[in-house]
Specification:
The chain has 113 residues and is mostly helical. The protein is built from six helices and no strands.
């Protein structure tokens, strides 16, 4: 299944294998853009070269090592999307808290006698 950046296919329709393939391609493209060899990236992240190659060729990596790679390639926005994007429950909680603050802050003026 081939997809482009503008492909409207919902993410849920990709198989896990297809998603891993897209992720690896994206990471490898960025590594090459920065002109870093696999060996250099391995050394700079502290990840064994065999581990990085498992990621590239077998699509297997621990989350911790994946984060190290993203950080070294300055791809933190990928992490930020997961960590900082609020889910529906958090949005509702935030609006409820704002409403409570607004109600507490509301004061009515009284007529002077």
């Amino acid at each position: 299944m081939s997809h482009s950046f503008t492909d409207p296919t919902p993410i849920l329709l990709y198989t896990p294998s297809e998603l891993m393939e897209k992720i690896v391609k994206r990471v490898e493209k960025e590594r090459l853009r920065q002109n870093i060899t696999q060996e250099e990236l391995s050394k700079r992240t502290g990840i064994p070269l065999a581990t990085y190659r498992n990621f590239v060729y077998k699509k297997q990596i621990s989350l911790e090592n994946f984060i190290k790679i993203l950080r070294r390639l300055r791809m933190e926005d990928a992490i930020r999307l997961i960590v900082d994007t609020p889910i529906e429950e958090e949005i509702v909680e935030a609006f409820d808290a704002l409403e409570q603050q607004r109600k507490k802050a509301r004061k009515r003026a009284r007529k002077k006698k």
